[in-house]
Amino acid sequence: MIHYITPYSPENNIGKAYNEAIACVPSEEDWIVLRDGDTMFLTPNWGRVIEENLNQYGEEYMLFGAKTNRIGVYHHKVEDMFTNLNIRDHYEKALELELEKRNNIQKVGFDIAGFFMAFQKKTWVAVEGFPENTPVFDRIFTRKVRAINGKVGVMEGLYLFHSYRIWSDNPENDVIHLYT
């Protein structure tokens, strides 16, 4: 079973919102797919891509990320898409990656960004959940997964459009929304 969850916290405590939502997942064997509210799947087969990757690589990897257009970390970012706001171009990029890299996983030694994270509930239990009251909940969670020898990877054939501070003139460095 895969649970798709997009938590929100009016107090900017996303770690707490994640923990509360995941606590409701019934089985530790169930998969959890978390994503930010400012993301969007663009192809009709996004769910199949996720399911195929989890089925194929779920025994090997404990935590997965995805590809996107607007993010500050390079292993998630698809080149030449950061400033492009034409949604059709993003759809075409998502389709291209889905067709070319549908079941490819890139093992990464870096943190998985919280815009998209997939893991089993037993992983969340093993690392004692997400840290609360911090905007770097995703980094800390990834490092806790690695600390228990969990393998971390990015689904290269899964692309999400991420508006990622679209309002800002300096989106890679604008973090004010994380604190207000």
What does this structure look like?
With 180 residues, the protein is α/β, with parallel strands linked by helices. It has one domain: Spore Coat Polysaccharide Biosynthesis Protein SpsA, Chain A (Alpha-Beta Complex). The protein is built from five helices and seven strands. Strands 3, 4, 5 and 7 form a four-stranded mixed beta sheet that branches. The chain is globular. It starts with a strand and ends in an 18-residue tail after the last strand. The mean pLDDT is 89.
CA-atom Rg in angstroms: 15 Å
CATH structural fold name: Spore Coat Polysaccharide Biosynthesis Protein SpsA, Chain A
What pattern of helices and strands is seen along the backbone? Answer: EHEEHEHEEHHE
Q: Main β-sheet: number of strands, strand sense, barrel status?
A: 4 strands, mixed
**So, CATH architecture?**
Alpha-Beta Complex
Structural class of the helices, strands and pairings? alpha/beta
Please provide the count of β strands.
7
How many individual domains? 1
Helix share bin: 25-40%
How many helices?
5
Determine the N-to-C terminus distance. 35 Å
CATH class: Alpha Beta
CATH level-4 homologous superfamily: Spore Coat Polysaccharide Biosynthesis Protein SpsA, Chain A
The residue-averaged pLDDT reads 89
Poorly predicted runs of 5 or more residues = none
